[in-house]
Design brief:
Layout (H helix, E strand, L loop, with lengths): L6 H8 L3 H12 L4 H8 L3 H23 L4
Helix pairs in contact: 1-4, 2-4, 3-4
Length: 71
């Protein structure tokens, strides 16, 4: 069902540190541009970029380990 989020993805998101989870949610769920996320969080765009990179890397690792794929 395309309306229901993948439970493994939700679990992986829940496992992220709060700041990474917030950035990923604002960027990819709320579809906010990087500059808007930075403004909402009162952080620099560079800080938000770094949090996004770390959050996505952690999601990839969590989902790959779930599938037994190499990281």
């Amino acid at each position: 069902d395309p309306e229901r989020p993948d439970p493994d993805l939700l679990c992986a998101l829940a496992g992220l540190p709060e700041d990474q989870r917030t950035v990923v949610a604002l960027r990819f769920v709320a579809d906010l541009p990087l500059a808007d996320v930075a403004a909402v969080l009162d952080r620099s765009t560079e800080a938000v970029k770094k949090l996004q990179q770390r959050g996505l890397a952690n999601l990839r690792r969590a989902l790959a380990s779930r599938d037994g794929e190499p990281i």
